[in-house]
Amino acid sequence: MVIVATRLQLQSWLKLPRFFRINYAVTRQLKSDPGLLSYRLKADFLHLRFSTLSVWQGDPAIDEFVWSGNHQGAIAAFDEIADRGRSVFVRWQTANPQDVTWEEARRRLSAVRSSG
After folding, report:
1. What is the pLDDT of residue 61?
2. CB–CB of 41/31 below 8 Å?
3. Which of 22-31's residues contact partners 24+ apart within 8 Å by CB, and which partners?
4. pLDDT (tens digit, 9 = 90+) per residue, 6-24?
């Protein structure tokens, strides 16, 4: 299994409606993706921060999803809505489903942030 964790920091409250439209479209794409095993979203509305945690069958499934459909449009809109310096993405592999927790995702996202 390959795990992807993200933390997206929006630039401002004015970007929230566009984020919702993009997120809705990407979620529709996720629901029909055969390579996705699970997906979770956490929202911190007060700080305009959104986190995802997804489990995939493998890297090819992730790469196909990322560079196609609605997600490709989300990538194109990223710099218009997100604060690149405060947004983080990380990918790792595990054979143990118990490793797929929000705590582990936070730890890995923090490690990327502090090293980058």
Report:
1. 94
2. no
3. 22/70, 22/73, 22/74, 22/77, 22/81, 23/50, 25/70, 25/73, 25/74, 26/70, 26/71, 26/74, 28/70, 29/65, 29/69, 29/70, 29/71, 30/54, 30/65
4. 999 999 999 999 999 999 9
Owner of token pair 């310096």: 85
The full set of domains in the chain, from first to last, is 2-115 (3.30.70.100)
The tokens 């979770």 sit on which residue?
Answer: 40
Residues 32, 57, 23, 53, CA torsion sign = positive
- Whether the CB-CB separation of 36 and 56 falls below 8 Å is answered with yes
103 vs 60: CA distance, rounded Å: 26
